[in-house]
Amino acid sequence: MKKFASIATALLFIATAKPTLAYDTGKMTCTQIGDMASAIVLGKEKGNSLQNALAAINHRMITQGYMIEAKIIEDIATQIYTADFAKGLSQEGAQVAYYADCVAQK
Protein backbone atom coordinates (compact mmCIF):
# COMPACT_ATOMS: atom_id res chain seq x y z
CA MET A 1 0.00 0.00 0.00
CA LYS A 2 2.88 2.40 0.82
CA LYS A 3 4.40 1.79 -2.62
CA PHE A 4 1.05 2.59 -4.25
CA ALA A 5 0.85 5.84 -2.27
CA SER A 6 4.36 6.79 -3.41
CA ILE A 7 3.51 6.12 -7.04
CA ALA A 8 0.20 8.00 -6.72
CA THR A 9 2.00 10.98 -5.19
CA ALA A 10 4.58 10.88 -7.98
CA LEU A 11 1.90 10.80 -10.65
CA LEU A 12 0.10 13.71 -9.02
CA PHE A 13 3.40 15.57 -8.92
CA ILE A 14 3.98 14.98 -12.62
CA ALA A 15 0.49 16.11 -13.52
CA THR A 16 0.75 19.35 -11.54
CA ALA A 17 4.41 20.27 -11.97
CA LYS A 18 5.19 19.44 -15.59
CA PRO A 19 4.58 22.93 -17.03
CA THR A 20 7.08 24.50 -14.63
CA LEU A 21 9.97 22.05 -14.98
CA ALA A 22 11.30 22.30 -18.54
CA TYR A 23 15.07 22.16 -18.32
CA ASP A 24 18.33 21.37 -20.09
CA THR A 25 19.78 18.38 -18.27
CA GLY A 26 23.34 19.10 -19.29
CA LYS A 27 25.48 15.99 -18.88
CA MET A 28 23.10 14.30 -16.45
CA THR A 29 20.79 11.50 -17.49
CA CYS A 30 17.17 11.39 -16.39
CA THR A 31 18.07 8.44 -14.16
CA GLN A 32 20.72 10.54 -12.43
CA ILE A 33 18.25 13.39 -11.93
CA GLY A 34 15.75 11.00 -10.38
CA ASP A 35 18.45 9.54 -8.14
CA MET A 36 19.51 13.01 -6.99
CA ALA A 37 15.88 13.87 -6.16
CA SER A 38 15.65 10.68 -4.12
CA ALA A 39 18.87 11.54 -2.28
CA ILE A 40 17.54 15.03 -1.51
CA VAL A 41 14.39 13.54 0.02
CA LEU A 42 16.56 11.20 2.10
CA GLY A 43 18.55 14.18 3.39
CA LYS A 44 15.36 16.04 4.20
CA GLU A 45 14.01 12.99 6.06
CA LYS A 46 17.25 12.87 8.08
CA GLY A 47 16.76 16.49 9.12
CA ASN A 48 19.14 18.27 6.77
CA SER A 49 18.14 21.85 6.05
CA LEU A 50 17.59 23.26 2.58
CA GLN A 51 20.62 25.50 3.15
CA ASN A 52 22.80 22.45 3.85
CA ALA A 53 21.40 20.61 0.83
CA LEU A 54 22.17 23.58 -1.44
CA ALA A 55 25.68 23.91 -0.03
CA ALA A 56 26.34 20.21 -0.65
CA ILE A 57 25.03 20.49 -4.21
CA ASN A 58 27.24 23.52 -4.88
CA HIS A 59 30.30 21.84 -3.44
CA ARG A 60 29.77 18.56 -5.25
CA MET A 61 28.65 19.79 -8.65
CA ILE A 62 29.90 23.30 -9.25
CA THR A 63 33.45 22.48 -8.17
CA GLN A 64 33.38 19.67 -10.75
CA GLY A 65 32.27 22.06 -13.50
CA TYR A 66 28.62 20.99 -13.68
CA MET A 67 27.04 24.45 -13.74
CA ILE A 68 23.84 23.59 -15.66
CA GLU A 69 23.36 20.44 -13.65
CA ALA A 70 23.91 22.22 -10.33
CA LYS A 71 21.15 24.71 -11.14
CA ILE A 72 18.74 21.86 -12.02
CA ILE A 73 19.47 20.03 -8.78
CA GLU A 74 19.26 23.26 -6.75
CA ASP A 75 15.81 23.87 -8.25
CA ILE A 76 14.74 20.31 -7.45
CA ALA A 77 16.01 20.62 -3.87
CA THR A 78 14.15 23.89 -3.40
CA GLN A 79 10.96 22.28 -4.71
CA ILE A 80 11.32 19.24 -2.47
CA TYR A 81 11.86 21.40 0.61
CA THR A 82 9.34 24.17 -0.07
CA ALA A 83 6.69 23.32 -2.67
CA ASP A 84 3.29 22.16 -1.50
CA PHE A 85 3.11 19.50 -4.21
CA ALA A 86 6.38 17.92 -3.05
CA LYS A 87 5.74 17.74 0.70
CA GLY A 88 4.52 14.14 0.61
CA LEU A 89 7.14 12.75 -1.76
CA SER A 90 8.97 9.66 -0.57
CA GLN A 91 12.42 8.78 -1.86
CA GLU A 92 10.89 6.42 -4.40
CA GLY A 93 8.19 8.92 -5.32
CA ALA A 94 10.75 11.66 -5.91
CA GLN A 95 12.90 9.35 -8.04
CA VAL A 96 9.94 8.30 -10.16
CA ALA A 97 8.49 11.80 -10.46
CA TYR A 98 11.66 13.64 -11.42
CA TYR A 99 12.83 10.85 -13.73
CA ALA A 100 9.46 10.83 -15.53
CA ASP A 101 9.38 14.61 -15.73
CA CYS A 102 12.86 14.65 -17.22
CA VAL A 103 11.95 12.03 -19.82
CA ALA A 104 8.80 13.97 -20.72
CA GLN A 105 10.88 17.13 -21.29
CA LYS A 106 13.33 15.50 -23.72
- How many runs of DSSP E, i.e. beta strands? 0
Spans of 5+ residues with little confidence (pLDDT < 50)? Answer: 14-21
Report the principal-axis shape: globular
Domain count, please report it.
Answer: 1
> How much helicity do the residues have?
over 70%
Element-by-element helix/strand order: HHHHH
**Rg from Cα:** 13 Å
The helix-and-strand class reads mainly alpha
Number of helices: 5
What does the largest sheet look like? none
First and last CA, distance? 31 Å
Output mean pLDDT.
82
As a percent range, the share of strand residues is under 5%
Features:
106 residues, mainly alpha, 71% helix
Task: Characterize the structure shown.
The chain has 106 residues and is mainly alpha-helical. It has one domain (2-105). It is 71% helix and 0% strand. It is built from five helices and no strands. Helix 2 crosses helix 4, helix 2 (30-45) runs antiparallel to helix 5 and helix 3 (50-61) runs antiparallel to helix 4 (67-82).
What is the compact description of this entry?
The protein is mainly alpha-helical and 106 residues long.
